[in-house]
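Objective 1b: paired records.
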Amino acid sequence: MKTKIKTIITGILMSAHIIVSAQTKPANPFGLVYQNAITQNVAGKVNIHSVTYKLNGIVISANIYTPAYYDPSMHYAAIVVAHPNGGVKEQVAGLYAQDLAELGYITIAADASYQGASGGQPRNVDKPANRIEDIRGMADYLSQYAGVDINHIGLLGICGGGGYSLKAAQTDKRFKAIATLSMFNSGVVRRNGFMNSGLATIQQRLQQATEARTLEATKGEILYAADTEITDEMANQMPYDLYREGHYYYNRTHAHPNSTFRYTMSSLLDLMEFDAATNMDLINQPLLMMAGSKADTYYMTEQAFNLATGTKEKELFLIPGATHIQTYYVPEYVTQAMNKLNLFFSKNLHDGSHGK
């Protein structure tokens, strides 16, 4: 018997006319669902290259973006882009990877292990250690890619990918500059609930996760959390912008068949003990943390930023008027984030960027 667990997933937008106008999806041979995505590789412009590689025995599916007039004999700074929870490389991670390539960087966006088009069984395992290793694996692959200056690799993490990027950068000093956008502290939220709304059920959910692990071991049966189909009506009743707007972004305007919010119930055994904000003092690299001024997730960015006492160069940048999900696609907010990223990475990865 397969049990479906009702768990609030990520949520919406604002009004119907904005939802409709936000995204006109072209038929894209690369599967990209963001606005102004590459539809064909043209000489002299940013190109996209679909690649696969193995990480700890799992085949990883990734997209490499190369800058205009890319010459593999030259040296380029490179940037790893980590996608949100439930997201895939063809959504917001791809948008920012493409925009950063427009600035002259070689970039990579990869689907997490067990998720998207990447391998791994059972599907949709969502453990922090895997996500952190995925980020390191992207750096491994970039380090062998023609033209990449291995001494000038940066890191951008979005939403859950932001929290995992902070953890990766604490110990992996290949990342010379770290940026986050709308950082989401996955473990804390899975444990305590969003804005501490789940404190009363922590032990109950740990028991469910324990029983799910036992079921996997004894009967090979996989139980999933966040596996309920959400309707627009259900989303509209959600109390937080993150979940309401996330529903419309992921399930309507920027939907991708590989994107899902479900994860194995047993993953909670690892998620619920994880906190992206621990050991923040280990980050000694330049740090930029960005969030929308109206984001209900901002408290996570603020906490982690304040704990980053080991770096001499850090900046907290608020995008005026933006909610969490709106930083993923609304042109004016993406432009503001990209302008800040341009300044940040130009300063801290300058020696290797733009094909020098």
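Objective 1b, second protein:
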Amino acid sequence: MNAVQLLVEGLARSTLIRLADDPNASELTPEILVTNVVRRYELRLLRFLNELLTDELTEIAQSRGIELQPHFHLRQTIWLWAHRCEGGKQTCPPDVVSGKLVVFKEGPGTMPESVGWPRSVASTTAPRCRLPQTVDELLSNATALIGAAFPPQGTNKGAFGIAVATALGLREDNASEPDWMGEIEVKTIPVRKKNGLWTVKEDPAITMDSGSPYHKLQRVLWIARTTEEPATVLSWFLQSLEPEVKQLAERYLHLRPKGGAGTNRFGWYMHKRFFTECGFLYSLNGNPKDR
């Protein structure tokens, strides 16, 4: 039994027209409209539920006898019902972030051990590291930095990255070459908790439009830091531009103005969704079954 088929039946025609994503949808018969929506989402239950509005989710729950929940848990409740309808084994549902279902995918990369999930904010004094000569020394420095808090860095968004690079024993100078030995780029990523899970606050800048973002992303040490003051290093994630990561980068890299109003400078930014799918947020939150 396909759960999307069960969930689509009975939805208002206006909802089906919107979900069909077809310029001629308003001209289709109800039967064809339902068939087209089911065909579009039959293997995409999570996406289907995420695209429904709160009133539409409530309509589905009431028509199927599903217990109503606060709106930010309603998608999760319907997902569990649908999963059981499809004969799925008992499992943990997807996480909920900002009212939407998300799956923090495990991706290729290296991360430090964690005593629990999601990671908790540690407290330590920022070390005074010397320039690391090997990757292992770089990662050792990064591990020693977990829990280190940094004072407010003012309005300059790049100031925190410079402070972290200095603490790692590096020199952050915005050069075209990656920060460590021209081989590994170090990027700080602001993260915050929503519904108890770590999420990326904003799309981070990768490089100016004159540079190659893929050159910077060949090997990256992502440093997660909290957005609450004082900003504290939460963890790190070392990742190479393997084929699946490059495919995600190609999907989520985008150009946009870099600077204040009226700027004519542009830079390459990475959409936040990249970090849900590349393994970075998995390295901070783990699996639901492990919590």
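The mean pLDDT is 91. The longest helix spans residues 71-85.
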